[in-house]
Amino acid sequence: MITSVPSSHALKRISLPGWVKGVFVLLLLCGAAPGAGAQTWMVSTTAQIKLGVLDKYGQLGPYTATFIVHSERTGKDYFLVKEITKGQSGVDVLFPTEPTDSEYFKAETGEAAAATPGSYTWECRVKGVKAVGGKFEFPSVGNDVTIINKEKEKE
């Protein structure tokens, strides 16, 4: 199938009334467009904590690291198991992890962890023994949104 494309000479054949009509329609469309009165921003804030374990001298070889995070407010424990393969000495993980991730922090019921404000304790067990641990706190978070009004900008 052959498709012909008009040459630039064909564009020159458009009459003056055709050009005027086209410009008029363009101006009409531009004038009918709604004016932007103010800008509204969408905002999101997500808190995450980075937890990690490292066999500093690489003496263990492959091992399983089980991260356990305990919420002081709800009393729930959230687990994440990571396999450390030969050649790796450790791993860092983020708490909470998105439930869409294949490996996420979850309670025994399968419930995904959330970054709810409050105090947490955590530990990492290697070969069933607590290797490292600590505590952290998620603060309440809030977002401020500024409306930018074009009329005020001109002042």
Descriptive key words:
single chain, 155 residues, alpha+beta, 8 strands
Distance between the amino and carboxyl termini: 60 Å
Number of alpha- plus pi-helical segments? 3
- Rounded Rg: 30 Å
Total number of beta strands = 8
Structural class: alpha+beta
**Oligomerization state of this entry?**
single chain
Beta fraction: 25-35%
Shape: elongated
* Biggest sheet: strand arrangement: 4-3-6-7
Average pLDDT rating: 81
| Biggest sheet layout | 4 strands, antiparallel
- What is the string of SSEs from the N terminus onward? HHEEEEEEEEH
Fraction in helix: 10-25%
> Which regions contain 5 or more consecutive residues with pLDDT less than 50?
none
Any overview of this molecule?
The protein has 155 residues and is of the alpha+beta class. Helices cover 17% and strands 34% of the residues. Strand 3 and strand 4 (77-84) form a beta hairpin.
In summary, what is this structure?
By secondary structure, this protein is α+β, with helices and mostly antiparallel strands.
What order do the helices and strands come in, and which of them pair?
Blueprint: H1 8-12, H2 16-32, E1 38-39, E2 49-54, E3 63-71, E4 77-84, E5 90-95, E6 118-126, E7 129-138, E8 148-149, H3 150-154
Antiparallel strand pairs: 1-8, 2-5, 3-4, 3-6, 6-7
